[in-house]
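Hi C.,

You asked whether I'd gotten around to modeling the 93-residue construct. I have! Everything is below, sequence then structure, no commentary in between.
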Amino acid sequence: MLSDDKISHLSHVLLKGLLDGDIIGLNADEGKIRREIKRSMVSFLKVGQDIDESVRKKMQSFSRKIIEGTPEWEVLYKKFYKEEAARRGVASE
């Protein structure tokens, strides 16, 4: 998970990029928009954490222990992560 400071910094960078690139125009306070960007980022990261926890639980439930970091573990983790993300309607990759 990213720290609050990093998320705040990213929200500033993102808003600045959107404004500098004339991608958006403001009709609300910049602070309010940055807070909404932060809220969206935190929400998205939380979904990723929930998917990660679900995948790890699934992999731990196997009768044969698969050691984290091995090629087999990596392949299965990516496969199950992608399936869980699709089930929740979240793009993965």
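If it helps when you're writing up: The first helix runs from residue 4 to 20.

Thanks,
B.
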